[in-house]
Task: structure prediction
Amino acid sequence: MNGFKTFISEEIDEKRLKHLEHAEDHVINFGHEGFTHAYHNLKDVHDKLTGKSNDTKVTMKYDGSPSIVFGRHPENGKFFVASKSVFNKNPKVNYTHEDIEKNHGHAPGLVEKLKHALDHLPKVSPKKGVYQADIMHTQHDRHETNGKVHFTPNTITYLTPSDSEHGKAAMRSKIGIAVHTKYHGKSLQDMEAEVGADVSDFHEHPDVHNISVEHDLSNSNYTDKHQDDFHKHMNAAVKIWEKTKPETHEAVGRHRDNLKTYINHTVRTGTKPSAAGFHAHYSQWHQKKVDGVKTPAAKDRKIAAMNSDLSHAKENEHHTKTVLKMHHHLQKAKNVLVNAMSSSSAFEHTINGKKTKPEGFVAIRNGRPTKFVDRADFSANNFNKDKKL
Result:
């Protein structure tokens, strides 16, 4: 009961997919090519869950904070820690505690985490290489209660039995990290990311709780019902894709960024994306632009841009509906896979005391990473976490 269109070939320019995007958003980003990229990502993960082998790698996303870059500077060999801004034109590179205070003194929480990283990560890091990791805990924010070790680096609370390997490692360590990316290049500004890179050359040390992002799919509970649902949505997406003409993607492409912003808005509000909803959201966005300028000439320019964009979006509403339908079925198929992969994990996960799934997963196909996250679950909680404080 396969139902896949095996003739679909992937001809996407992989170099353009530089950002970690949701699988279903590929069809908005790159139209026809984006759909095929999403299709093959989803199919590869499905195949792996059914025991078939392929080159796509799947890792778990950890909800750590902050995300740090660290390792040996490619130009001088000195060990450093930094925030992700290290790749900016004027990077803030920290070799000492004094550097951290100077560069990040305005953010005391970040200062504390970076100092822990600077003190302890050299104990496990290779002699060469630059890496990125999420900090999962320090010795001050992991706790033991009722036979379980728990820490809450961001939105999700992670729990593990005190006598488990992770529990014991967390309690004896000074810092916990999840390394997910390695960088390649001769200078920081020229570096390219390798998501899901092999980090087996890291050392072990009791002061560092190194949480592997590798995820074993063989223990996942991928039932016949799961697979039927997956095929149903994939086949529905393909049928729409087969009838979609280039002008559909061209029309929607003009409003790509605003459409994605609108979809994130529906995640926050728990509403279903629609062409009418997008038009209303787009209109409000443009009106804010109009209201944000003062001179008559500036207002006239903003109003002209608003009228042009809204008119074009309205005239091409049927194209937006088509893309949103493909987006919907790709997302539904992805969620089936996320639910199956979430059935096996080294940790329990809760948000505000309520059981939840892991943040999600990353599929790396042909060297390009794609997010597999249940947006109605984790993304909604993450977007709205500040409202709950």
